[in-house]
Amino acid sequence: MKTIRQEIIELIEDNPMTAKDISQSLGLEEKQVTEHLEHIRQSVKKQGKKLVITPPKCLSCGFVFSKRDKLTPPGRCPECRSSHIQDPEFAIK
Ligand SMILES: [Zn+2]
Question: N or C: more exposed end of the chain, with fewer CB within 10 A?
């Protein structure tokens, strides 16, 4: 039997998805997905792979959260204060 983490890895291998997409595909809560991704980020390193994060982006002004290393989406844009933010996407490469 596969573990949830293996299922997440297979799901996002070369296929970027948001935590919300992953949670819906596997029937998990978004918070659980984020916790699994934290572990996956460490474990795939040993296989010579990488968890690639597409940074979240403000949909109002286009600001990209490029320096952000956290897996959770930011609440507000520092530039225009909008909360209309596109979720980060995760992929294994
Ligand atoms: Zn903005």
Answer: N
Helix (H) / strand (E) element for 34: namely helix 30-43
pLDDT per residue as tens digits for the range 38-62: 999 999 999 999 999 999 999 999 9
How many A from CA of 83 to the centre of ligand 1? Answer: 8
Residues 6 or more apart whose CB falls under 8 angstroms from that of 81 comprise none
What is the domain-level CATH number for residue 44? 1.10.10
Tens-digit pLDDT profile for residues 82-91: 999 999 999 9
Residues lining ion ligand 1 (Cβ < 5 A) are 58, 60-61, 63, 77, 79-80, 82
Instruction: Tell me, in angstroms, the distance from the centre of ligand 1 to residue 66's CA.
Output: 13
- Which helix (DSSP H) or strand (DSSP E) does residue 33 occupy? helix 30-43
**How many independent structural domains does the chain possess?**
1
Claim: this prediction has a pTM higher than 0.85: yes
